[in-house]
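About this split. The held-out portion is used to measure sequence recovery: a designer receives only the structure tokens and must propose an amino acid at every position. Recovery is the fraction of positions where the proposal matches the reference. Here is one held-out target exactly as it appears in the evaluation file.
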């Protein structure tokens, strides 16, 4: 039987299950998981949150032209 880890208020979970489903957690959920979980889970949550923040810094917002018809 696989070892179970504490994942914040979500209860006990296999590490592989948490890793494969980490995309379903919002940034706020990940922050709460980081505050109250086993160290192995915290490490995965921090990595995911860092990755999300780095993607946001690289771009993600599309610049739109100003004014009607793209004119300033």
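Reference sequence for scoring:
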């Amino acid at each position: 039987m696989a070892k179970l880890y504490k994942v914040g208020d979500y209860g006990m979970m296999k590490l592989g299950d948490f890793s494969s489903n980490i995309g379903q957690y919002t940034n706020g959920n990940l922050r709460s998981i980081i505050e109250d979980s086993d160290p192995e889970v915290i490490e995965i949550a921090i990595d995911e949150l860092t990755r999300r923040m780095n993607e946001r810094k690289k771009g993600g917002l599309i610049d739109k032209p100003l004014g009607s018809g793209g004119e300033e």
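Annotator remark: The chain has a mean pLDDT of 85.
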